[in-house]
């Protein structure tokens, strides 16, 4: 059955691919934040495990291709590995349900190892599933066409790639929104089960859709895998060369010619072409090492930035969508506009030059990321060292308050209803503090070493000055805000913000800090002497800490003052767009060109081997990140970005030299020569046979 001149089965394959990519990219988008905030791993461990997973996803395709070509055939391989994949997605989703082990119902899992174990099992199954299917689906689609449908086949591959990008784009937008929801049976939490559950459901749909089309597919019998042939040929050549290593054997033109005794000339010639391309692949993993950090380091960078785009609030893991959006725009632009312009300028922009430019651009993208990181680092709060303490003075009274810190230090005066920033003192220089306001004075003991504290002063109170403990030791993560209240009212006050009760605060006492999600405004309600007053809070931004002072109540309106303890993230997420743009330009010239070039330099039956080699470069790239993130003792994130940029730049120069000495070949010509030789040989054999027959008949 056909439709618009295409086999009907194609539509099932494209829908299947869309669902599968949605499932994979959706799960991968929130993965680093799941490691970081749910499993509570630090930045480095999260990055290491993330890249181990991605590397595994790119190593398993080689296995998938072998299973499909030598044993099960593509259809059965896709079905059986999709089942594995769906189970893996489901297990990962279950691993993120905090109510699973949250027996004391405090909102965080009590038995984290259970979650880690489930998550690792799930991820390993996903890696085998997605990797095993990857080489089969596109090829299986190609099998559906007849030999005379060349045009439709190439159009199919374009639609196929479009469905990959559409799937990845939609899921990178949708999954983070699901993650940002609050859900949970006992305690409300970020909704990871939903963020992993939707991809799992889509994978199940992908599997069902694929199986429904079963009757329409053209199923080609497994033909045996060329990769195994190539490996055997190389192995035999090396073994044979080693046996004949003494100088009395004549040298051969190429070391692969030592396989002549056992393998035919054609296979040897084809293997030579493949090895020539694979040699050029050696520097390529460094590109992927940088490229795949979008999902790890760059996403973690976005968590320290301001995601307020006016009408919409962007989640840190949504910034990754910039890449697929730009790809969809850039690929046609580059093909239709940029390349023809370069051609007009009489520049010969060869495939290898394109790849070199791609590497250079990726390196520059990391320089951009480092510059953004430097700006972020400037805005981070500085906490006291072990020998220091930090003091903030907040004056809740009606007159000026002056604090004397000791003989060598300057006095500080604070106006009524004003406060200072945190001031850092060497602990050894401080003595007890004198506080003077109006005609009253008081002495308070010195601060606690290595801590932040607020000195609360009020001249009209009996207890004129007292310490408040600020038990915050780091900036709130994931763009959340910390809020606490001081009751500057003579009577007890019962405070609620949003749905969160702060309980009853006695006069001049302070609540604990409570975590709120970033970028929102809430209703603050105070009940004083059974009378209720309320006010809508100002926006606290992302990643801030505030002390809210409750002053008084006029009518139903609550008067509050906001004292900023930690400033909100002030570097805007839009500053990440330049680095994404440069990296995507690099990807367009690198990735698209790389595969086209490989296919043009090797015989058609070797495509599977080159595809495997290409995926291997991605896997090795992720292993490089593992090693650098694990081994580098750089404390500064910007320095690590610069290190990666420098490494890729060095590799780029090496690659440029290799490319300079590369000679382009035309596999078809070489194949034609081999055909000629075979014809000649066949004719020669015929002639010999004829002569033999003649000779026999004479006898």
Automatic annotation (TrEMBL):
Coiled coil: none
Biological process annotations from GO: protein transport
Alphabetized UniProt keyword annotations: Cell membrane, Glycoprotein, Membrane, Peptide transport, Protein transport, Symport, Transmembrane, Transmembrane helix, Transport
GO MF annotation, one: symporter activity
Location in the cell: Apical cell membrane; Membrane
Catalysed reactions, as listed in the record: L-alanyl-L-prolylglycine(out) + H(+)(out) = L-alanyl-L-prolylglycine(in) + H(+)(in); N(alpha)-formyl-L-methionyl-L-leucyl-L-phenylalanine(out) + 2 H(+)(out) = N(alpha)-formyl-L-methionyl-L-leucyl-L-phenylalanine(in) + 2 H(+)(in); L-alanyl-L-aspartate(out) + 2 H(+)(out) = L-alanyl-L-aspartate(in) + 2 H(+)(in); glycyl-L-glutamine(out) + H(+)(out) = glycyl-L-glutamine(in) + H(+)(in)
Gene3D superfamilies membership: MFS general substrate transporter like domains (1.20.1250.20)
Region (Disordered): 677-699
Cellular compartments per GO CC: apical plasma membrane
InterPro entries assigned: MFS_trans_sf, Oligopep_transport, POT_fam, PTR2_symporter_CS
Membrane topology of the entry: Multi-pass membrane protein
Entry-linked CDD domains: MFS_SLC15A1 (cd17412)
Transmembrane segments: 48-68, 75-92, 112-133, 154-174, 194-217, 273-291, 325-342, 354-374, 608-629, 641-662
UniProt similarity note: Belongs to the major facilitator superfamily. Proton-dependent oligopeptide transporter (POT/PTR) (TC 2.A.17) family.
Subunit comment: Interacts (via extracellular domain region) with trypsin.
The protein's role, per its UniProt record: Electrogenic proton-coupled amino-acid transporter that transports oligopeptides of 2 to 4 amino acids with a preference for dipeptides. Transports neutral and monovalently charged peptides with a proton to peptide stoichiometry of 1:1 or 2:1. Primarily responsible for the absorption of dietary di- and tripeptides from the small intestinal lumen. Mediates transepithelial transport of muramyl and N-formylated bacterial dipeptides contributing to recognition of pathogenic bacteria by the mucosal immune system.
PANTHER family: OLIGOPEPTIDE TRANSPORTER-RELATED
Protein name per its UniProtKB record: Solute carrier family 15 member 1
Source organism: Aegotheles bennettii
């Amino acid at each position: 059955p056909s439709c618009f001149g295409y086999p009907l089965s194609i539509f099932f394959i494209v829908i299947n691919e869309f669902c599968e990519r949605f499932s994979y990219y959706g799960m991968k988008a929130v993965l680093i934040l799941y490691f970081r905030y749910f499993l509570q791993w630090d930045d480095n461990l999260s990055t290491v495990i993330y890249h181990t997973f991605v590397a595994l996803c790119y190593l398993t395709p080689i296995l998938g291709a072998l299973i499909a070509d030598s044993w099960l055939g593509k259809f059965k391989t896709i079905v059986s590995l999709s089942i594995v994949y769906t189970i893996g997605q489901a297990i990962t989703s279950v691993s993120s349900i905090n109510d699973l082990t949250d027996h004391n119902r405090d909102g965080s899992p009590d038995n984290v190892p259970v979650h880690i174990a489930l998550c690792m099992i799930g991820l390993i199954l996903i890696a085998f599933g997605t990797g095993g299917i990857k080489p089969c689906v596109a090829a299986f689609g190609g099998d559906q066409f007849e030999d005379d449908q060349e045009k439709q086949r190439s159009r199919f591959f374009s639609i196929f790639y479009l469905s990959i990008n559409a799937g990845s784009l939609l899921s990178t937008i949708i999954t983070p929104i699901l993650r940002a929801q609050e859900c949970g049976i006992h305690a409300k939490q970020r909704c990871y089960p939903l963020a992993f559950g939707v991809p799992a459901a889509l994978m199940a749909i992908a599997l069902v859709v694929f199986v429904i089309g079963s009757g329409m597919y053209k199923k080609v019998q497994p033909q045996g895998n060329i990769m195994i042939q190539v490996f055997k040929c190389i192995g035999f050549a090396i073994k044979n060369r080693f046996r004949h290593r003494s100088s009395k054997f004549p040298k051969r033109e190429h070391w692969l010619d030592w396989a002549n005794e056992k393998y035919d000339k054609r296979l040897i010639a084809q293997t030579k072409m493949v090895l020539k391309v694979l040699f050029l692949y050696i520097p390529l993993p460094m590109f992927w090492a940088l490229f795949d950090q979008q999902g790890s380091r760059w996403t973690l960078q976005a968590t320290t930035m301001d995601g307020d785009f006016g009408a919409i609030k962007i989640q840190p893991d949504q910034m990754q969508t910039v890449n697929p959006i730009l790809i969809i725009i850039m690929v046609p632009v580059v093909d239709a506009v940029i390349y023809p312009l370069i051609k007009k300028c009489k520049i010969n922009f060869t495939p290898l030059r394109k790849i070199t430019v791609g590497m250079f651009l990726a390196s520059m993208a990391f320089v951009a990321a480092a510059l953004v990181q430097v700006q972020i680092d400037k805005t981070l709060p500085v906490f006291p060292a072990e020998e220091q303490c930090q003091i903030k003075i907040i004056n809740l009274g009606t007159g000026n308050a002056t604090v004397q810190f000791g003989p060598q230090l300057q006095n500080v005066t604070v106006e009524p209803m004003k406060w200072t920033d945190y001031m850092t003192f060497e602990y050894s220089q401080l003595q007890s503090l004198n506080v003077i306001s109006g005609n009253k004075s008081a002495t308070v003991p010195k601060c606690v070493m290595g801590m932040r504290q607020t000195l609360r002063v009020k001249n009209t109170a009996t207890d004129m000055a007292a310490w408040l403990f600020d038990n915050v030791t780091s900036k709130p993560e994931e763009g959340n805000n910390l809020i606490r209240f001081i009751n500057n009212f003579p009577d007890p006050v019962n405070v609620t913000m949003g749905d969160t009760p702060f309980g009853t605060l006695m006069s001049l006492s302070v609540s604990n800090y409570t975590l709120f999600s970033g970028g929102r405004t809430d209703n603050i309600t105070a009940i004083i002497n059974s009378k209720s007053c309320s006010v809508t809070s100002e926006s606290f931004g992302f990643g801030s800490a505030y002390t809210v002072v409750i002053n008084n109540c006029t009518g139903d309106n609550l008067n509050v003052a906001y004292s900023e303890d930690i400033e909100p993230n002030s570097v805007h997420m839009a500053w990440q767009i330049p680095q994404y743009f440069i990296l995507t330009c690099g990807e367009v010239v690198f990735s698209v060109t790389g595969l086209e070039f490989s296919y043009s330099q090797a015989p058609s039956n070797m495509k599977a081997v080159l595809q495997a080699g290409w995926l291997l470069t991605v896997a090795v790239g992720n292993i490089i990140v593992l090693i650098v993130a694990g081994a580098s003792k750089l404390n500064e994130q910007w320095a690590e970005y610069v290190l990666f940029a420098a490494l890729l730049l060095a590799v780029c120069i090496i690659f440029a030299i290799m490319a300079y000495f590369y000679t382009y070949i035309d596999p078809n010509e070489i194949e034609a020569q081999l055909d000629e030789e075979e014809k000649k040989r066949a004719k020669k054999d015929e002639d010999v046979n004829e002569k033999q027959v003649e000779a026999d008949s004479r006898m």
